[in-house]
Specification:
alpha+beta, flat, 17% strand
Protein backbone atom coordinates (compact mmCIF):
# COMPACT_ATOMS: atom_id res chain seq x y z
CA UNK A 1 0.00 0.00 0.00
CA UNK A 2 1.35 3.38 -1.04
CA UNK A 3 1.88 6.35 1.32
CA UNK A 4 -0.47 9.24 0.38
CA UNK A 5 1.58 11.83 2.38
CA UNK A 6 4.65 11.33 0.25
CA UNK A 7 2.70 12.01 -2.92
CA UNK A 8 1.16 15.23 -1.63
CA UNK A 9 4.58 16.54 -0.52
CA UNK A 10 5.96 16.03 -3.97
CA UNK A 11 3.08 17.97 -5.48
CA UNK A 12 3.68 20.96 -3.20
CA UNK A 13 7.30 21.57 -4.42
CA UNK A 14 7.45 24.71 -6.72
CA UNK A 15 8.85 24.41 -10.15
CA UNK A 16 12.24 26.07 -10.60
CA UNK A 17 11.33 27.84 -13.88
CA UNK A 18 8.34 29.50 -12.32
CA UNK A 19 10.27 30.77 -9.26
CA UNK A 20 13.32 31.94 -11.18
CA UNK A 21 16.98 30.94 -11.37
CA UNK A 22 19.42 30.79 -8.49
CA UNK A 23 21.15 33.97 -9.68
CA UNK A 24 17.94 35.91 -9.11
CA UNK A 25 18.02 35.07 -5.46
CA UNK A 26 21.74 35.44 -5.00
CA UNK A 27 22.71 38.54 -2.93
CA UNK A 28 24.23 41.34 -5.00
CA UNK A 29 23.13 40.02 -8.35
CA UNK A 30 24.50 42.42 -10.97
CA UNK A 31 21.96 42.06 -13.71
CA UNK A 32 18.95 42.44 -11.44
CA UNK A 33 20.38 45.28 -9.40
CA UNK A 34 21.24 47.33 -12.52
CA UNK A 35 17.72 46.98 -13.86
CA UNK A 36 16.32 47.80 -10.46
CA UNK A 37 18.15 51.13 -10.42
CA UNK A 38 16.38 52.08 -13.62
CA UNK A 39 19.57 53.17 -15.48
CA UNK A 40 20.67 50.71 -18.13
CA UNK A 41 24.40 50.73 -19.08
CA UNK A 42 23.64 52.08 -22.56
CA UNK A 43 21.94 55.18 -21.11
CA UNK A 44 24.87 55.89 -18.75
CA UNK A 45 27.30 55.82 -21.71
CA UNK A 46 25.10 58.19 -23.70
CA UNK A 47 24.95 60.63 -20.77
CA UNK A 48 28.77 60.65 -20.46
CA UNK A 49 29.11 61.31 -24.20
CA UNK A 50 26.68 64.23 -23.98
CA UNK A 51 28.65 65.78 -21.07
CA UNK A 52 31.86 65.53 -23.08
CA UNK A 53 30.24 67.21 -26.08
CA UNK A 54 28.98 70.07 -23.87
CA UNK A 55 32.52 70.61 -22.50
CA UNK A 56 33.96 70.78 -26.03
CA UNK A 57 31.22 73.21 -27.06
CA UNK A 58 32.06 75.46 -24.08
CA UNK A 59 35.76 75.56 -25.03
CA UNK A 60 34.82 76.33 -28.63
CA UNK A 61 32.59 79.21 -27.53
CA UNK A 62 35.31 80.65 -25.24
CA UNK A 63 37.89 80.78 -28.03
CA UNK A 64 35.92 83.19 -30.29
CA UNK A 65 35.25 85.44 -27.26
CA UNK A 66 39.00 85.72 -26.59
CA UNK A 67 39.70 86.48 -30.24
CA UNK A 68 37.02 89.16 -30.23
CA UNK A 69 38.54 90.83 -27.16
CA UNK A 70 41.99 90.79 -28.77
CA UNK A 71 40.64 92.39 -31.94
CA UNK A 72 38.86 95.04 -29.87
CA UNK A 73 42.07 95.83 -27.96
CA UNK A 74 44.14 96.11 -31.14
CA UNK A 75 41.52 98.36 -32.71
CA UNK A 76 41.51 100.68 -29.69
CA UNK A 77 45.32 100.81 -29.67
CA UNK A 78 45.36 101.75 -33.36
CA UNK A 79 42.72 104.44 -32.82
CA UNK A 80 44.69 105.95 -29.92
CA UNK A 81 47.90 105.98 -31.98
CA UNK A 82 46.08 107.74 -34.83
CA UNK A 83 44.61 110.26 -32.36
CA UNK A 84 48.06 110.99 -30.89
CA UNK A 85 49.59 111.55 -34.33
CA UNK A 86 46.64 113.69 -35.43
CA UNK A 87 46.87 115.84 -32.28
CA UNK A 88 50.61 116.39 -32.76
CA UNK A 89 50.04 117.34 -36.39
CA UNK A 90 47.26 119.77 -35.47
CA UNK A 91 49.43 121.42 -32.80
CA UNK A 92 52.26 121.81 -35.28
CA UNK A 93 49.92 123.27 -37.89
CA UNK A 94 48.40 125.66 -35.33
CA UNK A 95 51.87 126.88 -34.33
CA UNK A 96 52.82 127.40 -37.98
CA UNK A 97 49.63 129.39 -38.61
CA UNK A 98 50.30 131.59 -35.58
CA UNK A 99 53.83 132.30 -36.76
CA UNK A 100 52.56 133.09 -40.25
CA UNK A 101 50.04 135.56 -38.80
CA UNK A 102 52.79 137.27 -36.82
CA UNK A 103 55.04 137.58 -39.87
CA UNK A 104 52.10 138.91 -41.92
CA UNK A 105 51.60 141.72 -39.41
CA UNK A 106 55.29 142.64 -39.53
CA UNK A 107 55.63 142.68 -43.32
CA UNK A 108 54.61 146.32 -43.70
CA UNK A 109 57.11 147.44 -41.07
CA UNK A 110 59.85 145.48 -42.82
CA UNK A 111 58.91 147.16 -46.13
CA UNK A 112 59.26 150.61 -44.53
CA UNK A 113 62.58 149.60 -42.97
CA UNK A 114 63.86 148.46 -46.37
CA UNK A 115 62.93 151.83 -47.93
CA UNK A 116 64.90 153.78 -45.34
CA UNK A 117 67.84 151.40 -45.58
CA UNK A 118 68.23 152.20 -49.29
CA UNK A 119 67.77 155.99 -49.28
CA UNK A 120 70.40 158.21 -50.84
CA UNK A 121 72.16 159.91 -47.91
CA UNK A 122 73.23 162.79 -50.16
CA UNK A 123 69.64 163.79 -50.83
CA UNK A 124 68.06 162.88 -47.41
CA UNK A 125 68.67 164.81 -44.20
CA UNK A 126 69.19 163.13 -40.82
CA UNK A 127 65.90 164.34 -39.38
CA UNK A 128 63.91 162.55 -42.09
CA UNK A 129 65.77 159.29 -41.44
CA UNK A 130 65.19 159.53 -37.70
CA UNK A 131 61.49 160.13 -38.21
CA UNK A 132 61.27 157.20 -40.61
CA UNK A 133 63.03 154.81 -38.24
CA UNK A 134 60.78 155.93 -35.38
CA UNK A 135 57.72 155.24 -37.56
CA UNK A 136 59.02 151.76 -38.42
CA UNK A 137 59.69 150.97 -34.75
CA UNK A 138 56.17 151.96 -33.74
CA UNK A 139 54.64 149.91 -36.54
CA UNK A 140 56.62 146.79 -35.64
CA UNK A 141 55.92 147.16 -31.91
CA UNK A 142 52.22 147.55 -32.65
CA UNK A 143 52.24 144.28 -34.60
CA UNK A 144 54.14 142.46 -31.87
CA UNK A 145 51.95 143.89 -29.09
CA UNK A 146 48.81 142.71 -30.86
CA UNK A 147 50.38 139.21 -30.99
CA UNK A 148 50.98 139.22 -27.21
CA UNK A 149 54.38 140.87 -26.69
CA UNK A 150 54.84 143.13 -23.66
CA UNK A 151 57.88 145.35 -23.03
CA UNK A 152 59.45 145.39 -19.55
CA UNK A 153 60.84 148.84 -18.76
CA UNK A 154 60.83 148.98 -14.94
CA UNK A 155 62.41 152.38 -14.18
CA UNK A 156 61.30 153.47 -10.68
CA UNK A 157 59.81 150.05 -9.85
CA UNK A 158 60.89 147.64 -7.13
CA UNK A 159 63.40 145.08 -8.33
CA UNK A 160 61.71 141.79 -9.27
CA UNK A 161 64.15 138.89 -9.74
CA UNK A 162 61.54 137.00 -11.77
CA UNK A 163 61.51 139.72 -14.46
CA UNK A 164 64.67 141.78 -13.88
CA UNK A 165 68.39 141.08 -14.01
CA UNK A 166 70.61 143.36 -11.95
CA UNK A 167 73.82 144.19 -13.78
CA UNK A 168 74.97 146.87 -11.32
CA UNK A 169 74.00 148.74 -8.16
CA UNK A 170 74.31 152.38 -7.10
CA UNK A 171 74.07 153.85 -3.62
CA UNK A 172 71.09 155.84 -2.42
CA UNK A 173 70.61 158.04 0.63
CA UNK A 174 66.89 157.32 0.98
CA UNK A 175 65.81 154.10 2.63
CA UNK A 176 62.57 154.00 0.64
CA UNK A 177 64.61 153.82 -2.60
CA UNK A 178 66.39 150.64 -1.53
CA UNK A 179 66.01 147.89 -4.19
CA UNK A 180 64.38 150.29 -6.66
CA UNK A 181 65.41 150.20 -10.32
CA UNK A 182 67.42 153.31 -11.19
CA UNK A 183 68.13 152.73 -14.90
CA UNK A 184 67.43 150.17 -17.61
CA UNK A 185 70.28 149.02 -19.82
CA UNK A 186 68.09 146.73 -21.91
CA UNK A 187 64.31 146.39 -21.76
CA UNK A 188 62.86 142.94 -21.19
CA UNK A 189 60.12 141.17 -23.11
CA UNK A 190 57.28 138.87 -22.14
CA UNK A 191 55.30 137.04 -24.81
CA UNK A 192 51.89 136.21 -23.40
CA UNK A 193 52.99 134.53 -20.13
CA UNK A 194 56.47 133.44 -21.21
CA UNK A 195 59.53 135.50 -20.32
CA UNK A 196 61.56 136.09 -23.47
CA UNK A 197 64.29 138.19 -21.87
CA UNK A 198 64.59 139.81 -18.43
CA UNK A 199 65.18 143.55 -18.22
CA UNK A 200 68.82 144.33 -17.47
CA UNK A 201 68.81 147.08 -14.86
CA UNK A 202 70.80 149.11 -12.31
CA UNK A 203 69.39 148.82 -8.77
CA UNK A 204 69.59 151.40 -5.99
CA UNK A 205 71.08 150.18 -2.71
CA UNK A 206 70.73 151.84 0.71
CA UNK A 207 73.60 151.09 3.07
CA UNK A 208 72.05 152.71 6.18
Amino acid sequence: MKNPRKKSAQQELPEQDAMGSEDDFAPGGSARSTQADGVPPSEESASADASGEQSVDSDTEATPDLSSEQEKYLRLAAEYDNYRKRSARERSEAGARAQADLVRQMVEGLDDLARFAHVDPSTTDAETIVQGVDMVEKKIMKALSSAGLRVINPVGETFDPALHEAVATEPTSAQEDDHVVARVYQPGYVFNTQLIRPARVVVKQWNG
